[in-house]
């Protein structure tokens, strides 16, 4: 029997204690307090929670903060959202949660050890921070659900060619290659990447400046720990890539969200914040997630700032190969004459994510420091995949694959836009994007993107809310729709679900 509290706000307020000065984000504090209140039965199954706007006003915090906490609790099964009614504590909690209800000793505080005595937390301050900034991830589906961002067309990957190259390498691999290798990566791969980047991306580098890493995330995290001290400020695009923010905060840096304009990261807005920055993180070729390309004048202005301020620029070139009109835009790094840009690339979106291979291109003055840091976090990357990627690059398979994928992704984007315009009419603001693997579409003013995303998730459609990527309150709510991994039938079926959800009017 559900228990509905007609006046839930006072009870919820008793369960929440927020500290605006803590390193842990406010949404995570609110999530944690509400979760513990549910597990300890202070908030009972079926109990209605306050509306997000009301709770935000009572706690004197942003409504987006409450929305993010509610959305995370909903995703994990603690809360359920009922369209037109509100948000409630879930009627049936996952079975494994029932075993820990009320057992707060499983997660002792700093002042309470697991045996009940006073003692220190089992985690370091950095460990606690890492736990609290961990971002929710998509579940690993056997088949990608529409419209999960960031996935390439796995069904179109030339697996037979890859298998042949892999088999050839293993058949001829000498025993001498089975020991420890260079932490910076397989030298022929570093040489092949250097040649490719110079020709296709306008990057100026030698093979010695290329460091092989386990994907973009390791590259960003490594850069944060090498270049940033605790308390240093890092400018990040807002909206932008959440895991970059997490990497900087884990290194102890203070992240400063910087708004965007039609030319990219707004240096005027960045400079209007208190104090300068030690590093700026940007996605200039195709901003994530809004999609604009940073203008030449803005690039030059950013490089001038970095040189004058003795600061660094971290350029994430995550999907630059996929441009559907004209040639790919040259990298920001190619304009850098002062050695201030660290360039990041990855094979996750051009080949496949499970490969876990990416690369850093670092200024010559930083090569030794990055190489030493890399040897501490990873003794040496797996050799066989690096060999196969080398062959894939040198024998022309990579370029052929890119040409096929550009054609396929342009077609899938066109299908998605056509279906959205046909099925949703003027309910969504949809426009094409000349690059990338996703579209950002904007919702009408009376629709809330977090609620819409949660409703779509129940329909087996992944459409992250635009507000998830921002630390600020945005002028417009939207959804981020990845189309590269979704075939035509699933694109149209997913759009049908979006249309039905919009027609159900998920109000603010």
Describe the model.
The protein is of the alpha/beta class. It has three domains: 9-105, Winged helix-like DNA-binding domain superfamily/Winged helix DNA-binding domain (Arc Repressor Mutant, subunit A), CATH 1.10.10; 182-395, Aspartate Aminotransferase, domain 2; 400-503, Aspartate Aminotransferase, domain 1 (Alpha-Beta Complex). 39% of the residues lie in helices and 11% in strands. The protein is built from 17 helices and twelve strands. The chain has helices at residues 9-15, 26-39, 52-59, 63-75, 95-98, 125-133, 159-172, 187-200, 216-227, 242-250, 267-271, 296-309, 367-377, 383-394, 397-424, 449-458, 488-503, and strands at residues 79-82, 86-89, 210-213, 233-238, 254-261, 264-265, 279-282, 312-316, 341-346, 358-361, 438-442, 478-482. The strands form three sheets. An eight-stranded mixed β-sheet has the order 3-10-9-8-7-4-5-6, with helices on both faces. The protein has a two-stranded antiparallel sheet with strand order 1-2. Helix 2 (26-39) crosses helix 4 (63-75), helix 3 (52-59) crosses helix 4 and helix 9 (216-227) runs parallel beside helix 10 (242-250). The chain is globular and about 65 Å long. The model is unreliable at 1-6 and 95-118 (pLDDT under 50).
State the gist of this model.
The protein has 508 residues and is α/β, with parallel strands linked by helices.
**How confident is the prediction overall: mean pLDDT?**
87
* Strand proportion: 5-15%
Order of helices and strands: HHHHEEHHHHEHEHEEHEHEEEHHHEHEH
Q: Spans of 5+ residues with little confidence (pLDDT < 50)?
A: 1-6, 95-118
Integer-rounded radius of gyration: 24 Å
Task: Based on the coordinates given, report the CATH architecture of the largest domain.
Answer: 3-Layer(aba) Sandwich
Strand order of the largest sheet: 3-10-9-8-7-4-5-6
List the total number of helices: 17
- CATH C-level of the largest domain: Alpha Beta
Number of domains: 3
SS-based structural class? alpha/beta
């Amino acid at each position: 029997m559900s228990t509905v509290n007609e006046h839930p706000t006072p009870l919820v307020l008793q369960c929440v204690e927020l500290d605006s000065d803590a390193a842990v984000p406010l949404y995570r504090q609110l999530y944690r307090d509400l979760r513990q209140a549910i597990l300890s039965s202070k908030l009972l199954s079926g109990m209605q929670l306050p509306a997000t706007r009301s709770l935000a006003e009572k706690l004197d915090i942003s409504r987006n903060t409450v929305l993010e906490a509610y959305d995370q609790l909903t995703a994990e099964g603690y809360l359920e959202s009922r369209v037109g009614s509100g948000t409630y504590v879930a009627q049936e909690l996952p079975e494994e949660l029932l075993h820990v209800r009320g057992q707060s000793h499983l997660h002792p505080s700093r002042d309470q050890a697991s045996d009940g005595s006073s003692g220190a937390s089992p985690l370091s301050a950095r460990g606690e921070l890492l736990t609290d900034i961990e971002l929710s991830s998509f579940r690993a589906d056997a088949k990608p659900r529409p419209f999960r961002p960031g996935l390439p067309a796995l069904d179109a990957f030339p697996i037979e060619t890859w298998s042949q190259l892999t088999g050839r390498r293993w058949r001829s691999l000498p025993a001498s290659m089975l020991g420890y290798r260079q932490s910076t990566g397989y030298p022929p791969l570093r040489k092949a990447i250097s040649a490719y980047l110079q020709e296709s991306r306008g990057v100026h580098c030698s093979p010695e400046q290329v460091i092989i890493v386990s994907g973009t995330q390791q590259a960003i995290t490594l850069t944060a720990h090498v270049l940033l001290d605790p308390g240093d400020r890092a400018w990040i695009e807002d909206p932008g890539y959440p895991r970059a923010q997490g990497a900087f905060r884990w290194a102890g840096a203070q992240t400063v969200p910087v708004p965007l304009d039609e030319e990219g990261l707004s240096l005027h807005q960045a400079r209007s914040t208190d104090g300068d920055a030690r590093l700026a993180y940007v996605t200039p070729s195709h901003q994530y997630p809004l999609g604009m390309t940073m203008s030449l004048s803005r690039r030059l202005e950013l490089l001038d700032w970095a040189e004058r301020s003795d600061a660094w620029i971290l350029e994430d070139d995550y999907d630059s190969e996929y441009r559907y009109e004209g040639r790919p835009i040259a990298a920001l790094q190619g304009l850098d004459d002062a050695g201030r840009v660290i360039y990041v690339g990855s094979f996750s979106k051009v080949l496949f994510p499970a490969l876990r291979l990416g690369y850093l291109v670092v200024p010559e003055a930083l090569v030794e420091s990055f190489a030493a840091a890399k040897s501490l976090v990873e003794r040496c990357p797996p050799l066989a995949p690096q060999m196969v990627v080398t062959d894939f690059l040198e024998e022309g398979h990579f370029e052929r694959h890119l040409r096929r994928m550009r054609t396929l992704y342009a077609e899938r984007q066109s299908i998605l836009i056509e279906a959205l315009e046909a099925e949703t009419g003027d309910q969504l603001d949809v426009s094409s994007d000349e690059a990338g693997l996703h579209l950002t579409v904007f919702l009408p003013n009376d629709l809330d993107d977090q609620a819409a995303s949660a409703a779509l998730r129940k329909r087996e459609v992944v459409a992250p809310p635009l507000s998830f990527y921002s630390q600020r309150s945005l002028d417009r709510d939207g959804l981020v729709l990845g189309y590269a991994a979704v075939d035509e039938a699933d694109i149209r079926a997913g759009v049908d679900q979006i249309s039905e959800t919009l027609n159900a009017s998920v109000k603010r």
